[in-house]
Amino acid sequence: MKDKHLTTNQGVPVTDNQNSQTIGERGPVLLQDVQFIEKMAHFDRERIPERVVHAKGAGAHGYFQVYKSMKPYTKAKFLQEPKKKTPVFVRFSTVVGGRGSADTVRDPRGFAVKFYTEDGNYDLVGNNLPVFFIRDAIKFPDMVHAFKGAPDTNIPSASSAHNRFWDFISLTPESTHMITWLFSDRGTPKSYRMQEGFGVNTYVWVNAEGNAVYVKYHWKPKLGVQNLDRHEATQLVGTDPDYLTRDLRDAIARGEEVEYELNVQLMDIADELKQDFDPLDPTKTWPEDKFSLMPVGKMVLNRNPDNFFAEVEQAAFCPASIVPGIEFSADKLLQGRTFSYADTQRHRLGPNYLELPINRSLVDVNNNQRDGPMQIGQFSGPVNYEPASLAGGSPSEAPEESKPRVYRLEGEVTRRKISKTNDFAQAGERYRSLSKMDQEHLIDNIIADLMHIDKPIKQRVIENLTKADPELGQAVTAGLKL
Ligand code: HEM
After folding, report:
1. DSSP string across 8-29
2. What pLDDT digit, counting tens, does each position of 44-58 carry?
């Protein structure tokens, strides 16, 4: 490589990077030391706002490949052709802790995948647990406020063992199912390579004939699911707070391919009201004996980022980033998510965040959304509007085949809870499906947290757990010596 010499940001040679410019050798420093001022002013602005949730994360590059064409169900181009490899970028994360927090604290883990497809970017922004705490996005800010540091003390910053968390949970009965996942050892995965991923929300697949079907996504790790127990996880917080980040990076650096299989569950839209639960309720799973998992393809992660800030910190995933063949369901949590992510990213990264290399689509972006802070596009010519006859009328609207489905909706305008809430049934089923050891760990993990909590809150939690499964409620009551 040709020898490079230091320059300022204007490209001017820097001949001394050790000493400020001073009067005499002992100072003071001169205001005209523009080299110093430029360097310090840039440093002063090096941090961008951390993500409002999922602030700590690790990323990797790789590819996705379908096993067989999904053409009968979706026209999404990256799902048509088994020979095609679609590049992906993945970011795994914790949710509650801030940017410098420990990896092995009990928490859901984010599992966000960006597919760089020929029809633009598709983001599948999931978690490692199949359900969520709430079912309406309007509760998300309350939920996150209750989980993050207290407004008066900022304690705790990355843990659930506090009154505010359990206060919110106990008053949100639909969270009981999520608690049976989060407080099992799935809340402390052993490795990002050994966890499942779930889209959680229900999406819609639409084929070229316009036929639509509901779809739920599942990622299965090739290495199987492995978790830490509470004691191992707690110890690692002290001895290796970046344990999961390091594990992923080291495995890829050693040349090991990190692999997951994508599976989907499909449901006819005509069957949605026939279920004993609401299929668009993200606090529910779809029973796998009725809606079997269909293998779709594999994702292989095989390349570490070169620069954490550019690729991982500035990555912007968004459930609203869909491609033709994939659409939203009416799931009220998903509907809210479609607004929230790009909105926060415009604040966190700036309005031109999709021009950053990690977020850029591999296909050309053609539209008239221009200018704004940090615009790097070099546009030429007089046309920045559409329709236009100047400049040959280009870019013009894309062909019909990319159009979303047309469908009819009717109903009264209201603010109302869904009627099939079934807040406890699946929580109980989940508890009873666990092995004896996993049941004991779930109970023990809940008790270890609840013992620090005020009595009335504890009692409300126990009421909910008892409604899910009396044995679970009793075991927690006994453990707390209530
Ligand atoms: C109404 C519910 C939700 C809202 C409003 C919401 C909002 C947000 C916001 C604002 C961010 C930060 C984005 C950024 O700064 O780049 C975020 C990150 C994230 N959310 Fe959600 N979220 C919700 C539910 C969920 C659910 C159900 C899942 C999983 C299925 C999920 C998975 C993620 C992941 C994985 C990230 C991190 C993406 C990354 O690695 O950059 N969120 N969420």
Report:
1. -TTS-B-S-SS---BSSTT-PB
2. 999 999 999 999 999
Q: Could you tell which of 129, 216, 337, 339 is best to mutate to test the pocket of ligand 1, judged by most ligand atoms within 8 Å of the CB?
A: 337
Q: For residue 153, what are its two tokens?
A: 């003390």
pLDDT over 60 at 296, yes or no: yes
Q: Which atom of ligand 1 is nearest to the CA of 282?
A: 27
DSSP label of 374: T
Q: Ligand 1 centre and the CA of 344: distance in Å?
A: 10
Q: Pick from 257, 188, 65, 202: which is nearest to 438 by CA?
A: 188
Cβ(218)–Cβ(293) below 8 Å: yes
For the segment(s) 1-46, the CATH number from 1.25.40.340, 4.10.91.20, 1.20.1420.30, 3.40.50.300 is 4.10.91.20
Amino acid at 11: G
Give the CATH fold of the 57-131+189-355 domain. Answer: Catalase HpII,  Chain A, domain 1 (2.40.180)
Domain regions of the chain by residue span: 1-46, 57-131+189-355
> Active-site residue 231, yes or no?
no
160: pLDDT strictly greater than 70: no
- Overall pTM > 0.85: yes
157 pLDDT band, cuts 50/70/90, is low
**Per-residue confidence (pLDDT) for residue 155, from 0 to 100:** 81
Residue 316 CA to residue 428 CA, distance in Å, equals 36
Q: Please give the distance, rounded to the nearest whole angstrom, from the Cα atom of residue 187 to the centre of ligand 1.
A: 17
pLDDT at 156: 74
**Hey, whose CA ends up nearest to atom 1 of ligand 1?**
137
Alpha-carbon gap, residue 375 to 352, rounded angstroms: 6
Q: How confident is the model over 297-312, as a mean pLDDT?
A: 98
**238-273 b/e with 16+ CB inside 10 Å = b?**
eeebbbbbebbbebbeeeeebbbbbbbbbbeeeeee
Q: Ligand 1 centroid vs 440 CA: distance in angstroms?
A: 31
Nearest ligand 1 atom to the CA of 200 is: 30
Q: Identify the sign of the CA torsion 458, 460, 465, 471.
A: positive
Structure confidence at residue 2 (pLDDT): 73
Catalytic annotation on 367? no
